[in-house]
Design goal:
By secondary structure, the protein is α/β, with parallel strands linked by helices. Helices cover 24% and strands 15% of the residues. Bound molecules: 1-deoxynojirimycin. 1-deoxynojirimycin binds next to loops.
């Protein structure tokens, strides 16, 4: 059922992330593209999501999977062109899907017009002022400070003069050297992005996912950081305030963007990638005149631990409530390991590093428990209020691909750290659509930019369709129930289980006839009893009735009950 054209759709939408390079290849070159997406769009309608988010599709040298944009108002030829992108937006709308696209305002590609003008200009020219160009220390031979790139190594590279000669100046790149950070003090930078927002809004796009939304403003004078920086810290309280992140000036940018979004009917929506140190700092981005929502990375990083997950849920609901924003939930994206593998590793006692890039432990995951937990985590997440994100292939319970050969890896952090980090390609392996055939239906020619595991036909869309025990059919069922019958995206939650319980049980107001649904997940080692009379949905086998009433919920299982 299509969602209504309600201006508040983003408050409870389930949003499916497509990494365009890896979803479906329409022209047989081994890279996914817009033609492939258009050919498979019905999959999303049948799945029952409300919206789709496209990771960057702009013109780009692809040094960081398209997060290095050369032209924000053009589509990369590997994906299609503006006309086919616009047709795709229209077709998604016809299927009742809202469309969000990624935007990358913290940095451009070195191939962006602004950086090309910088290279042609001289030290101190106006073109230089659009980026963070700073004289180096020791007569320019050393970078201005010791800031590190998120992808490893230093965060500064020398600015060459027009003929390639040394200038003694350095430009900042918090990510790859091919991703120079923009200077948001320059009016041209504001104008470039306002024009870009309007360009895509005018073509029907319903909102943007904002990359690195807490990074655009740097502390004046680029002060040295005196704190220990854990570049991959992510859990609440782990992220220390740093001079390159979460500077107060960034909020004025979001207020400017919100004014642009509000000029449309219905108003366009933003979801921010916001990594900050505290609940209060996060909530500041969600004030009514800034971003509509932000990703919940605390949930994304939550270990398989009941009391910890409960604290994260409470923290998230509290934080969003500070400013009247909805909560969001996310288990996977293109930067982190697949949950089937992550939770399967936790089942054998191996906690992943908090890094989204570090090499996974050498032990093998318990795959059966990983699958059970991936299913449970999905059912539990879809029982929570707010909006939720699904990453492509999560509906198939795709595992992380751990054994990609080094020569195939494209994550820039892999190169910059000589293989110590940069393993994100493991979650970017193309989607299997068919049980047989080259590239399992991903591409018409059978080539794929990353090799696909030989057994992926057995977990393809075709293999899982119609199998009531499959993750795909579970996802379809859960999405339909969440939206149509139980209306679980709206309303509050109330805990029924004790704060230290390993089996989480919470009560949700839902539906018109019977006002409550219990959402339960057993993260402990022992079977638990949930007091209820009816099972609405379970992530595992049918639940047995407990001897004294209620239902038995085995470990690694979630259910919705009444
Ligand atoms: C976050 C994106 O999700 C990631 O893929 C990218 O590498 C960085 N931002 C830099 O743009």
């Amino acid at each position: 059922m299509p969602i209504t054209n309600d201006a508040d759709w983003w408050r409870n939408a389930v949003i499916y992330q497509i990494y365009p390079k890896s979803w479906a290849d329409g022209d047989g070159d081994g890279f996914g593209d817009i033609a492939g997406i258009r050919a498979h769009l019905a999959h999303l309608a049948r799945l029952g999501v409300d919206a789709v988010w496209f990771s960057p599709w702009y013109r780009s040298p692809q040094a960081d999977g398209g997060y290095d944009v050369a032209d924000y108002r053009d589509i990369d030829p590997m994906f299609g062109d503006v006309a086919t992108a616009t047709a795709l937006v229209d077709e998604a709308h016809d299927l009742g899907l809202k469309v969000i696209v990624d935007i990358v305002p913290n940095h451009t590609s070195t191939e962006h017009r602004f950086f090309q003008e910088l290279l042609a200009g001289g030290p101190g020219s106006d073109a230089w002022a659009r980026y963070h160009c700073v004289p180096g220390r020791d007569d320019g031979s050393k970078p201005p400070n010791g800031w590190e790139s998120v992808f490893g190594g230093g965060a500064w590279s020398p600015v060459p003069g027009p003929d390639g000669e040394p200038t003694g100046w350095w430009y900042l790149h918090l990510f790859d050297a091919s991703q120079p950070d923009l200077n948001w003090d320059h009016p041209d930078v504001h104008a470039e992005f306002v024009e870009t927002l309007r360009f895509w809004f005018d073509r029907g796009v319903d909102g943007f996912r904002i990359d690195v939304a807490m990074g655009l403003v740097k502390a004046p004078g680029y002060p040295e950081s005196t704190r220990h920086v854990d570049r991959h810290a992510m859990l609440p309280g782990e992220v220390e305030p740093e001079p390159m992140w979460d500077q107060p000036g960034v909020h004025a940018i979001w207020r400017e963007w919100r004014r642009v979004a509000n000029q449309y009917s219905p108003p366009r929506a933003f979801v921010g990638e916001v990594w900050v140190s505290s609940a209060q700092a996060h909530a500041a981005y969600l004030r009514p005149d800034e971003l509509h929502t932000a990703f919940n990375f605390h949930h994304l990083k939550a270990p398989w631990d009941g009391p910890v997950l409960r604290r994260i849920i409470d923290h998230s609901v509290y934080e969003a409530g500070l400013v009247g924003a909805p909560t969001t939930w996310v288990l996977e994206n293109h930067d982190v390991p697949r949950v089937r593998t992550r939770f399967g590793l936790e089942a054998v006692g191996a906690r992943l590093p908090t890094s989204n890039t570090a090499q996974l432990p050498a032990v093998q995951p318990d795959d059966a428990r990983g699958v059970a937990r991936a299913r449970a985590a999905l059912v539990f997440m879809l029982g929570l209020p707010g909006s939720a994100y699904l990453y492509q292939g999560q509906e198939l319970a795709l595992p992380e691909v751990l054994d990609l050969p080094a020569e195939c890896r494209e994550d820039p952090a892999f190169r910059r750290t000589h293989g110590a980090e940069g393993y994100r390609d493991g979650s970017r392996v193309p989607m299997p659509w068919t049980t047989e055939g080259p590239a399992f239906g991903f591409s018409t020619s059978g080539t794929s930019w990353l090799p696909m595991p030989a057994d992926w036909g057995s977990i393809s869309v075709a293999a899982q369709t119609g199998d009531p025990t499959s993750m795909l059919e579970l996802t379809r069922r859960a999405l339909r129930l969440r939206r149509v019958e139980q209306a679980l995206g709206d309303g509050d939650l109330e805990w029924m289980s004790a704060p230290d319980a390993h089996c989480l049980v919470l009560r949700r107001p839902a539906g018109d006839t019977d006002p409550h649904v219990l959402v339960a997940m057993n993260l402990g080692d022992a079977t638990a009893v949930v007091e209820a009379t009816t099972v609405v949905l379970t992530s595992g086998a049918e639940l047995a009735v407990a001897p004294d009433g209620g239902f038995l919920l085995p470990p690694d299982t979630a259910a919705w009950l009444r």
